[in-house]
């Protein structure tokens, strides 16, 4: 198993199609997800979005096969980044890949200089909620958002009380 970003693998049409298929398969297991986007819609939402950064699209590989992904978006100038999707193929679950992918995404966010990483989850998605909490994410008062401030060494510092506010100094 290895992790690599789309930037490292080469942001090609062929790789984007493989990422789409992986994301579609993983998203099917999100409670209440519904029908997945068409490929063209996915390209607009994922790769043409303002926050798309090829180095923030982290992939797990088993040989040449894509088996997991974590996509973190960042708009330069913001103090936060957003983990949009984390997923692992059923055949590769329960091996710590989601946690490894999220950890790599958080390190990337630290490299961008952000102070907070945000994510959302469906309240019935216990595995990802557990992974988020292991990584130090805390429930906030804003929707189903989770925040965690990122320190220079990659560990997680003071909790953010709300996704709507800046990190506390307390």
Keywords:
7 strands, 170 residues, seven-stranded mixed sheet, Aminopeptidase, alpha+beta
Descriptive overview:
The chain has 170 residues and is α+β, with helices and mostly antiparallel strands. It has a single domain, classed as Aminopeptidase (3-Layer(aba) Sandwich), CATH 3.40.630. It is built from five helices and seven strands; from the N terminus they run E-H-H-H-E-E-E-H-E-H-E-E. It has a seven-stranded mixed β-sheet with strand order 1-2-3-4-5-7-6, with helices on both faces. Strand 2 (57-62) and strand 3 (65-73) form a beta hairpin. The protein is globular. The N and C termini lie far apart (40 Å). Residues 142-170 have low confidence and may be disordered.
Summarize the structure.
With 170 residues, this protein is an alpha+beta fold. It has 5 helices and 7 strands, in the order βαααβββαβαββ. It has a single domain, classed as Aminopeptidase (3-Layer(aba) Sandwich), CATH 3.40.630.
> What number of domains?
1
Q: Tell me the CATH architecture.
A: 3-Layer(aba) Sandwich
Give the count of helical stretches. 5
Q: Give the spatial strand order of the biggest sheet.
A: 1-2-3-4-5-7-6
Intertermini distance: 40 Å
CATH fourth-tier homologous superfamily = Gcn5-related N-acetyltransferase (GNAT)
Order of helices and strands: EHHHEEEHEHEE
Low-confidence blocks of residues: 142-170
Largest sheet: 7 strands, mixed
Radius of gyration: 15 Å
As for the CATH topology, it is: Aminopeptidase
Portion in helices: 25-40%
Number of extended strands: 7
Indicate the CATH class: Alpha Beta
Backbone structural class: alpha+beta
């Amino acid at each position: 198993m290895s992790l690599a970003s789309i930037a490292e693998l080469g942001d090609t049409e062929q790789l984007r199609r493989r990422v789409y298929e992986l994301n579609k398969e993983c998203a099917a297991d999100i409670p209440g997800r519904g029908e997945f986007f068409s490929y063209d819609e996915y390209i607009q939402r994922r790769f043409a979005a303002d926050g798309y950064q090829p180095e923030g699209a982290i992939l797990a590989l088993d040989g040449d096969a894509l088996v997991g992904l974590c996509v973190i978006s960042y708009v330069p100038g913001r103090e936060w980044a957003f983990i949009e999707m984390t997923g692992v193929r059923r055949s590769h679950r329960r091996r710590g890949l989601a946690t490894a992918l999220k950890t790599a995404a958080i390190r990337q966010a630290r490299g961008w200089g952000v102070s907070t990483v945000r994510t959302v989850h469906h309240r019935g998605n216990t595995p990802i909620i557990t992974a988020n909490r292991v990584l130090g994410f805390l429930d906030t008062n804003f929707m189903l958002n989770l925040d965690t401030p990122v320190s220079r060494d990659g560990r997680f510092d003071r909790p953010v009380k709300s996704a709507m506010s800046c990190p506390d100094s307390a």
